[in-house]
Amino acid sequence: MKESFIFLISGPSGAGKSTLLSKLLEDFKDELYFSISHTTRKPRNGEKDGIDYHFISKDEFEKKIKQDNFLEYALVHNNYYGTSINEVQKALNLGKIVVFDIDVQGFLIAREKFKDKICSVFISTKTSSELEKRLNNRNSMDANLKDRLINAEKEIKFLKEYDYLIINEDIAKSYTALKNIFLAEKLRIKRYNLDKILQEWKK
Q1: Which parts of the chain register pLDDT below 70?
Q2: SS3 of 129, please?
Q3: Residues with Cβ within 8 Å of residue 23, at least 6 apart in sequence
Q4: DSSP classification of residue 2
Q5: What local confidence, expressed as pLDDT, does residue 11 receive?
Q6: Pairing state between β 97-101 and 32-34
Q7: pTM for the full model?
């Protein structure tokens, strides 16, 4: 009796989105469908094609753009990232709750298309210096550190566009917050087929 929706997460690289989302996906794996983005960047250590991203060439990506295969796409740090519209729509039609991990630009495009079907959460560190510290501590020693910090400064200006904010200082507390948002969102009146509920209630 519930309608499917999109649970969308944004936030700067290094804020802990992937860690928090992996816990949510593990706890609610039967209900969730994680929208795996396509990207032209190279895999990082431990990342797998078809699990973390669909890693494709620039030529392949641009071909998909021409074929209008993306709900949204963006050029970030000289690499393309995009969300397949067909995969998202198929999951929604199956009644799955679709999870997005996309940047602000992608969020704004997705919200325009799906409107009330989207619940959005922005995840961030408390300060830019803390974000820089986390990026510096990454095993990969991110070569695009400066670009990522500049991008984070741009994205944080869009906080008011989101439904919820999590300042990730403690991973356990942040996950509890994310899980509670997800559980509450499933119970929103607008997520239900109210006509069907009222018909059932009269029996």
Answers
A1: 1, 138-143
A2: helix
A3: 175, 178, 179
A4: B
A5: 95
A6: parallel
A7: 0.85
pLDDT of residue 139: 56
Note the pLDDT tens digit of each residue in 115-141.
989 999 999 999 999 998 888 876 555
Instruction: Tell me the sheet residues that pair with 124.
Output: 167
Instruction: Please give the full DSSP string across 44-97, using - where no structure is assigned.
Output: PTT--BTTTBEE--HHHHHHHHHTT-EEEEEEETTEEEEEEHHHHHHHHHTTPE
Q: What integer pLDDT is reported at residue 75 of this predicted model?
A: 85
Dist. CA 180–CA 121, nearest whole Å: 12
- How far CA 180 is from CA of 60, 176, 184, in Å, comes to 39, 6, 6
Which SS3 state, helix, strand or coil, does residue 34 take? strand
Q: Is 192 exposed, middle or buried (0-12, 13-18, 19+ CB in 10 A)?
A: middle
Per DSSP, what are the bridge partners of residue 164?
121
pLDDT of residue 56: 96
Provide the 10 A C-beta neighbour count for residue 61. Answer: 21
Closest CA to 91 of 5, 195, 193, 166: 5
